């Protein structure tokens, strides 16, 4: 099963946002995609991972179905230009590469912001969807639980999860410390503004209002995250209502000016967080009593410090992953010999029962119980050495030779057929 594990990946590493957003899958679409895969192909251990930065399918199959799965995904999303879109995908056709890739994705080493704290939860959601559809077998169960344990070690033993390492996350961390239960106005929903909103949805219970020049974009994001939406034409009344204004408007001149703040006299204390380049909030707004401004430079500095701590932790994280992969590989190899162990147990148990049937007819119930206990104990001791030798052979990569010897010695293939 290990060598049959494969995956296809479309991510920020090789596809722009305009491509990624066309192939993103929500929960319903991910589950539908997994069911379609089951209908079309002979596969198991299916995992569909989709975030704002990646869409990936993992599966186990004796055949390399990567290109077929990419085509099916594109068709399901209504994309006809299959050949051009196919070039954006990475394909992992070897078990080692697919397992390593999933470890790196799930721990945040492959994230756009290294060490992203959201990715472990997103992998858990994908795992739950797979389990809900009965598409996670023993291999995937063991693999994901090994990854979750490795993630726990990463959190406990390294600085890889510490601090806000992206500008958008650092901005959310900042505003959470400004006041309890604030009214937040997010103006401008480009990539950074959208990231702020997604982080707000996961990290605060604040009242959030979205404003964007293209209202339809604000409405789509507001519906997804459960945020209120207002018209850009009502921006001044929305400023008066808000405690914190997060701006990521793209324009050449500041939009929020001292004159605007003076015009809105009588308003309560305001915090501005300006994430725009060039700046969209004039520094002069702080000349108005009750207005405080945080610029992208101060926020980026905080994010850069956290990012450097995470980058310094990468070698330790990779050591943890290497140890986890070795442990998982040992288990996977033992899975290869598991059927032989079960057949050997079955063959010896059959011999034990046949011999007991021949010689125990005249025994009393208590005598029969003792004989049962003695012969069962003997069988377990006889089995112990072959089982240990099989597991040791797995680690040496020599299991197949010992499996053949045991099959010949105990005629296990015939035993299997007779049962």
TrEMBL record:
Q: Where is the Tetrapyrrole biosynthesis glutamyl-tRNA reductase dimerisation domain?
A: 317-412
Residues that coordinate or bind substrate = 51-54, 111, 116-118, 122
According to UniProt, this protein's pathway is:
Porphyrin-containing compound metabolism; protoporphyrin-IX biosynthesis; 5-aminolevulinate from L-glutamyl-tRNA(Glu): step 1/2
> Catalytic activity annotated for this protein?
(S)-4-amino-5-oxopentanoate + tRNA(Glu) + NADP(+) = L-glutamyl-tRNA(Glu) + NADPH + H(+)
NCBIfam families given in the database record = hemA
Protein's UniProt name: Glutamyl-tRNA reductase
Q: Which family does it belong to?
A: Belongs to the glutamyl-tRNA reductase family.
List residue numbers at the site (Important for activity).
Answer: 101
| Residues engaged in binding NADP(+) | 188-193
Which CDD domains does the protein's record reference?
NAD_bind_Glutamyl_tRNA_reduct
Q: Which UniProt keywords apply?
A: NADP, Oxidoreductase, Porphyrin biosynthesis
What does the UniProt record say this protein does? Catalyzes the NADPH-dependent reduction of glutamyl-tRNA(Glu) to glutamate 1-semialdehyde (GSA).
| Keyword presence, RNA-binding | no
The residue ranges of the Glutamyl-tRNA reductase N-terminal domain are 8-158
- Which Gene Ontology terms describe the biological processes this protein takes part in? protoporphyrinogen IX biosynthetic process from glutamate
Additional notes on this entry: During catalysis, the active site Cys acts as a nucleophile attacking the alpha-carbonyl group of tRNA-bound glutamate with the formation of a thioester intermediate between enzyme and glutamate, and the concomitant release of tRNA(Glu). The thioester intermediate is finally reduced by direct hydride transfer from NADPH, to form the product GSA.
Could you tell me one molecular function GO term of this UniProt entry? NADP binding
One Pfam family this sequence matches: GlutR_N
> EC annotation?
1.2.1.70
- The kind of enzyme this is, by top-level EC class, is oxidoreductase
